[in-house]
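Private note to self, pasted from the team thread so I don't lose it. Backbone tokens:
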């Protein structure tokens, strides 16, 4: 009975703590007058702010795709390049996300910088980069990362951690300092953006939400209610 009472108290207290977590947002604001009319320039400005603030994993973004079973799936990937063509990241083409994007190219990206009280959401279409771009980036990676990408059948079921480490050690020993071969199942995606939402936290939950939406090769800007 004592243990049940203690467990009830701990669980109830834990839930109350979650319910009571809140803070107000006061760092900055976002207005139609202050933003760039080109969303890529606005993204570059906010990314520069995040990097200047030395935010850990500032380039980390949530990639959401529609899985082959019809459910949306989210995971964190790293942004490796961006320009007005889109946003580039790299992965295994045979992974779950690779298979999902092969079937449905519609994806979304989400950046969240808690320290700056900012979020960016991007909708677009994921297209494979050229093999030259994929190879160039692959061979710029640390050697051990190259080996890991070569031996990992990403998303496939494996018997144990030991199995994975053995494959890594076997290939490392086999190469003996020689160059790693480029795995053709690994490469980049470019997300061609058609919609951006920039979110800036504000006081009293009256957050700023500015949306850029592409229409006939032009970007329309509008404000959404928080």
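Design output:
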């Amino acid at each position: 009975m004592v243990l049940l009472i203690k467990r009830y108290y701990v669980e109830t207290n834990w839930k109350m703590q979650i319910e009571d977590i809140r803070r107000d947002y006061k760092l900055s604001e976002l207005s139609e007058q202050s933003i760039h009319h080109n969303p890529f320039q606005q993204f570059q400005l906010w990314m520069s702010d995040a990097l200047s603030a030395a935010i850990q994993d500032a380039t980390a973004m949530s990639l959401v795709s529609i899985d082959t079973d019809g459910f949306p799936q989210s995971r964190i990937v790293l942004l490796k390049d961006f320009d007005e063509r889109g946003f580039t990241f790299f992965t295994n083409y045979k992974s779950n996300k690779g298979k999902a994007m092969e079937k449905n190219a519609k994806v979304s990206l989400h950046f969240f910088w808690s320290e700056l009280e900012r979020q960016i959401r991007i909708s677009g279409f994921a297209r494979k980069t050229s093999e030259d771009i994929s190879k160039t980036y692959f061979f710029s990676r640390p050697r051990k990362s190259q080996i890991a990408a070569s031996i990992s059948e990403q998303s496939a079921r494996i018997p144990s951690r030991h199995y994975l480490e053995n494959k890594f050690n076997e290939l490392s020993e086999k190469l003996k300092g020689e160059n790693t071969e480029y795995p053709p199942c690994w490469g980049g995606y470019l997300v061609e953006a058609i919609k951006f939402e920039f979110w800036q936290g504000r006081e009293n939950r009256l957050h700023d939400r500015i949306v850029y939406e592409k229409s006939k090769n032009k970007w329309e800007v509008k404000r959404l209610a928080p």
